[in-house]
Design a protein that fits this description.
This protein is an alpha/beta fold. 33% of the residues lie in helices and 19% in strands. Helix 1 packs parallel to helix 7, helix 1 packs across helix 11 and helix 3 crosses helix 11. The termini are far apart. This is FAD dependent oxidoreductase domain-containing protein.
């Protein structure tokens, strides 16, 4: 079934390049030709759609299939819509964000994404269309940053990259009227300007944009391991390679047992200045690991758009059920944590039409996986699946850097395939030579 998108308005943005390889224009930066390779993307969250954008601007033809799409009613929304979505340099505040070995890689992706968001935010029309703003983000800590090697290294990187508005120190408690005794006692804080994304707006924009650049959308569900049906999918969709961007469902799609959900949730309260002074900046109390290896629930206060403030969050490992409500104990406790941090929120009114959003961060034991499938297909061939999942609590923070990495891997997989084909052509040609030679000799002449 082709997805109908009448509720999305037409692309009207002018041609705007936001980096050397991404353009916000409705046309692809490098238009495809009849011979351009065709990529099938499975999954239409921020990972799948930003990857579609990268591939389309690089000149590929793209089809996106997904079992669900961004929606704007009262039903469950995609994880990508539930996100804060606050840009943070990994390791971020909401639980296990980056296994050490991958930290430099994901920090690069985050910084690449930061640069793109900042460029978008600087252009008024585009910023509104994408729903991104640069706002002050303050991170509070339950330990001294200097006593924590990871946090110290992160501070250093922030200094090196010249984060705008950067400040650090306990004076930030008073600056924002936060309760320094909350969460058992805040010890440290830093802040800087960071992109905050209105995910509902951004998802609509991404769908509109990639569609306008030429992507086809189809509603389809892939059941089980994609590898087992790789040839079938390539043939049905006429594709040359597949990108797996199925988020928390990648456990089945990539036969990867190490994928697990980290349930999160946010209360949506009215931020119009009537119940408390309107908040424009975001705040997080960093979630620390407990002795059992699990992570503490955190306080996460993020202005969504002109009149909604998100109060979060939860970090519930292995929780597949999205069955919480504003009345649930854990949600009440979450609200109490936010109020404890910022007492003025005690008067906050929950927004009645959509009071609570919950979703599953796609976690993975060894964190994000953007890799070419190494297992062979049923026919013993090299696979042409590029996996892109396990972005945890950082899918928006990593989106553009991660999409570029997929693009590199897709190019690699296709050139490997091309080389293989050439080798086969050469082998066929030499076989022909041999056969003709034999026949020629039989017929009394040698064909050279
Ligand atoms: C409460 C909360 C707060 C968060 N805050 C932040 C934040 O501040 N900053 C940040 O960067 N990130 C944040 N995140 C994390 C972020 O939401 C995720 O990292 C991101 O959404 C992952 O995107 P994705 O596209 O990989 O997965 P998803 O958004 O889950 O998309 C997966 C897509 O694949 C499709 N799909 C799945 N399986 C199949 C199948 N078998 N066949 C066909 N289609 C399939 C789905 O329908 C969907 O379209 C937060 C998450 C939560 C829950």
């Amino acid at each position: 079934m082709t997805v109908s998108e009448n509720h999305f308005s037409e692309m009207t943005l002018d041609d705007e390049r936001i980096s050397h390889d991404f353009s916000a224009s409705g046309d692809p930066l490098n238009p495809p030709t009849d011979t351009s390779a065709h990529i099938l993307i499975i999954g239409a969250g921020v990972t799948g759609l930003t990857t579609a954008w990268a591939l389309l601007d690089a000149g590929f033809r793209v089809t996106v299939i997904s079992k669900e799409w961004a929606s704007h009613g009262s039903g469950l929304r995609l994880t990508s819509q539930i996100a804060g979505a606050l840009w943070e340099l990994p390791p971020a505040g909401c639980g296990p964000q980056a296994v050490q070995g991958k930290l430099p890689m994901v920090q690069d992706w985050a910084l690449e994404s930061f640069a793109v968001y900042r460029t978008i935010a600087a252009r008024a029309t585009l910023a509104e269309a994408y729903g991104v703003k640069m706002k002050m983000f303050t991170s509070f800590h339950l330990n001294k940053i200097d006593s924590d090697a990871l946090k110290t290294a992160k501070m250093q990187l922030m200094n090196d990259t010249g984060m705008e508005g950067f400040a650090r120190g306990t004076h930030l408690f008073a600056k924002y009227g936060v309760n320094a005794a909350s969460h058992g006692g805040l010890q440290d804080a830093y802040e800087h300007l960071a992109p905050i994304i209105d995910t509902d707006v951004a998802m609509s924009f991404l769908m509109r944009l990639v569609r306008s650049k030429g992507a086809r959308f189809e509603t389809d569900t892939v059941h089980g391991d994609i590898l087992a049906q790789e040839d079938h999918l390539l043939s049905v969709y006429g594709a040359d390679a597949i990108v797996n961007a199925t988020g928390v469902w990648a456990g089945a799609a990539a036969a990867d047992d190490s994928v697990y959900p980290m349930r999160g949730g946010v209360l949506r309260v009215v931020n119009d200045g009537t119940d408390f002074p309107k908040l424009e900046n975001s705040m997080v109390v960093s979630s620390e690991s407990k002795s059992d290896g699990y992570f503490r629930d955190m306080a996460f206060i993020v202005p969504r758009n002109d009149n909604i403030l998100l109060l979060g969050s939860l970090v519930h490992r292995d929780a597949w059920a999205l069955d919480l409500s504003p009345a649930s104990d854990v949600v009440q406790e979450m609200r109490a944590r936010c109020e404890d941090l910022l007492p003025m929120l005690k008067n906050a009114r929950v927004e009645s039409s959509y009071p609570f959003a919950q979703g599953m961060r796609p976690m993975r034991e060894s964190y994000v996986r953007v890799e070419l499938e190494e297992r062979k297909t049923c026919r013993g061939q090299q696979s042409r699946i590029v996996h892109s999942y396990g972005h945890g609590g950082a899918g928006w923070s990593l989106a553009f850097g991660s999409a570029r990495q997929v693009l590199r891997l897709v190019n690699g997989a296709l050139s490997r395939e091309e080389k293989k084909k050439k080798k086969m052509v050469c082998r066929d040609a030499s076989m022909d030579k041999l056969i003709n030679g034999v026949n020629g000799q039989r017929n009394g002449h040698l064909v050279t």
